[in-house]
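seq:
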Amino acid sequence: MIIRVLTRFDAQAWIAKDLKRGDLHALIDVASGLRPDGLTPDQASRLQARGMARPYGKGNFRFTMRGRVALFVRQKVRRRSGSLA
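struct:
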């Protein structure tokens, strides 16, 4: 049962659900710590709705464990698809 679920799991669809182009790149900026204020209000609301970022302080954001998992899975999917090409 678990194997069936894992083989049918679409990681890219899970990551991109309800997000727009540039949202994950902005999350990377937040995750790196270089730009904790690197989210626009629209990006912030979408990422918060997905549980990938949370506000702290005044206009700054931190990424959550779900955000970490999304970026990790995205990196693994890109590496795997890049090695097949």
